[in-house]
Amino acid sequence: MIKYIQSNFNIEQDLAKITARLADGKISDIPKILDNSKKNVRKEINDFLQKNMEISLLEMQSYSDFYCNDKPEAEYFLTICLAWFRDIMMIKMGREESIINIDYQDKLKNIVEHYSERNILKIINSIEKSFIYIKRNVNLRLILEFCFLRLKNNVQGRLKSEELKAEVKRFKIFPTT
Q: Average pLDDT of each block of 10 consecutive residues along the chain (177 residues)?
């Protein structure tokens, strides 16, 4: 697939390799991944996930406000998040050759100790559930805010239970455990 991408999209091998991993065998996704605006979104998402450890709940809400009006962009956001946490799990398992975001490998290695295997699995499960909720036409803002709360809760181990309960109170359609 890398050779196909290189020849049909006239790009260098390193970018073709990253694109092939992000496309996950879906040739129709290649133009979207190579779109410059998508590259910027991917960088922005990776920056967001990197600073997830210090991000305030208000900043998280601004991200959900930004993505809640565009379902395809929200799905792209969640797809990149899923790849990011998959990569963190691969590094934890000693399978660095299998990561998708090879251009962010050093940054991933720097934050891997902030996540336990159990919390990574919880985060991945939460993101996957978000895709289900999107297909069921649940309010996109609620899906994103809840997902972000789960990200924050699992990176720090646990938010104070009162703080988490207060933040999740309005999301009664979602389980909190």
A: 84 81 79 72 76 73 82 86 90 90 86 86 92 92 86 62 52 45
Render the burial of 146-174: b for 16+ CB within 10 Å, e for the rest: bbbbbbbbbbeeebeeeebeebbeebeeb
**C-alpha to C-alpha distance for 96 and 4, rounded to whole angstroms:** 24
Contact 49, 81 (CB under 8 A): yes
| pLDDT for res 159 | 43
- The CATH architecture annotation of domain 36-168 reads Up-down Bundle (1.20)
Distance, CA of 149 to CA of 157 (rounded, Å): 12
Question: What is the identity of the amino acid at 1?
Answer: M
- Dihedral of CA atoms 147, 153, 156, 161 in degrees, nearest 10, equals 170
Question: What is the pLDDT at residue 165?
Answer: 56
Evaluate whether 132 touches 147 at the Cβ level (below 8 Å).
Answer: no
Domain spans of the chain, in order of start: 1-34, 36-168
CA separation for the pair 72, 29 (Å, rounded): 12
CA distance from start to end of the chain: 40
